[in-house]
Amino acid sequence: KSLRRFVIANNGMTYSGISYLSQGLLKATAKLQILDISGNDVTYEGALALAAIFPHMNHITEVNVSDCNLGADGASALAKTFPELASLKTVNMSRNALRDRGVVAVLQHVSELSPPIQVNLEANDIKSDMIDQIVNEISNLPLLGSLDLSHLTLRRYEAFALAYTLQRMSSLETLDLNDSFIEEANFAPIGANLKHLSLLRSLQVYNNRIGCAGAMGLASSLPFLTHLMHLNIQFNSIPESAMLAVTENVKYLPSLVFLDLGWNAVGNNGAKALSASFSSLPSLRTLLLHSAQIGDEGAVDVIQALPTLTKLEVLDLAVNKISDISIAPLVQSLNGLLHLQSVDLSFNDFSNDGIWEMSGAVREDICLTVLLKTP
Questions:
Q1: How far is the C-alpha of 120 from the C-alpha of 193, rounded, in Å?
Q2: Which tens digit of pLDDT belongs to each residue from 119-131?
Q3: Helix %, strand %, coil % of the chain (to 5)
Q4: Of the ranges 6-15, 108-117, 253-262, 346-355, which one carries the lowest mean pLDDT score?
Q5: pLDDT at position 374, please?
Q6: Rounded CA gap, 34 and 295, in Å?
Q7: Strands 286-288, 314-316: pairing kind
């Protein structure tokens, strides 16, 4: 009766075992808060058995049924009970072959909840030609806490519908649009409407094509995202002029812990603007500027400002245009960062002598990656 956490993940259980388990759990639901049965073959029949006991779990806050072969009907059966679980905060239904019908059904039931909960529905075989229906359902979920549309194709209609929907999603904390093939013109309204997500903590836009207009829209929203902790816009074909607008507004993100601007044209001007924001980023632990077209001028600006990032643990400046000129200030700054664990400087313009000099001067507890050039 005092059971608070029950984990029986990845145990090869079938629906019959889940049915017996449900009968036993019925006697232990009084204080149960966390239930994890992920990685078992629950199926629709097992989901029905769980659905029968869920309304008795008055204190349940977290349910993990990922990779349980629920299917659309099983997920829907469980989701119908969510409105009765007053303490529920997080549900993981990823990798369950829900497909479009199942995802829509779950979203419909989640829309009835207040306060909102976080639901993970990734890797559920959603067809790209059904994204418009998914986006339409999301528009009915103004209290949604987490939204993952990664690895889907957001065309013009879906992108504009999502941009409009974001205006009402003031409770959203996590937005994942990685690998969604979003074109520049289609992301521009999304980026501009991010300003309505004042509680947003994580924004993932890796590997799209947001370009100049999309980045300018994003930059205009950054001053309003003061709770943002994780920002990833790597690999987006953003030109230097737009990256300058983004880097100039990073200073408005005091909660930032992770920042990835790699594979975009940050350039020397963007690096200078970014370095000016470091004093406003007291919590930053990871800074990734891989392949950002930064030369010695911009590198020195970043390097000299690094000591203000007192919690920095990971720094990536690989595949840029940094030469031996930057080694002395670089070594001095790196050695002063007490929490620094990893630095990647590979594929820059250092000479072999400079690399040996740097390798011998950097603190031994820092993992330094830098490649010697072959004769």
A1: 23
A2: 888 777 776 666 7
A3: 45, 10, 45
A4: 108-117
A5: 67
A6: 50
A7: parallel
Greatest mean pLDDT range, 56-65, 83-92, 299-308: 299-308
Mean pLDDT of 155-174: 89
pLDDT score of 147:
82
Exposure pattern of 67-101 as b/e (b: 16+ CB <10 Å)?
Answer: bbbbbbebbbbbbbbbeebeebeebbbbbbbbbbe
Report the distance separating Cα 375 and Cα 363, nearest Å.
28
DSSP label at residue 276: H
Which residues have CB under 8 Å from 187's CB, separation 6+? 159, 205, 208, 209, 210, 211, 213, 214, 217, 218
Matching residue, tokens 């990798």? 95
**Which tokens is 220 given?**
């205009």
The amino acid present at 236, given as its one-letter code, is N
Q: What is the pLDDT of residue 120?
A: 82
Average pLDDT over residues 335-359: 95
Exposed, middle or buried: residue 156 (CB in 10 Å: 0-12, 13-18, 19+)?
exposed
C-alpha dist (Å) from residue 160 to 57, 303, 348, 374: 40, 40, 40, 50
C-alpha span between 203 and 45 (Å, rounded): 37
pLDDT tens sequence across 221-230: 999 999 999 9
Task: Provide the total of helices (H) and of strands (E) in the chain, helices listed first.
Answer: 13, 14
Tokens 């836009």, residue located: 205
What is the per-residue pLDDT across 32-71, written as a single tens digit (0 to 9) for each? Answer: 899 999 999 999 999 999 999 998 888 899 999 999 999 9
Output the DSSP codes for 131-175: HHHHHHHHTT-TT--EEE-TTS---HHHHHHHHHHHTT-TT--EE
Which run of H or E residues covers position 277? helix 267-277
Among residues 216, 172, 166, the alpha carbon closest in space to that of 194 is found at 166
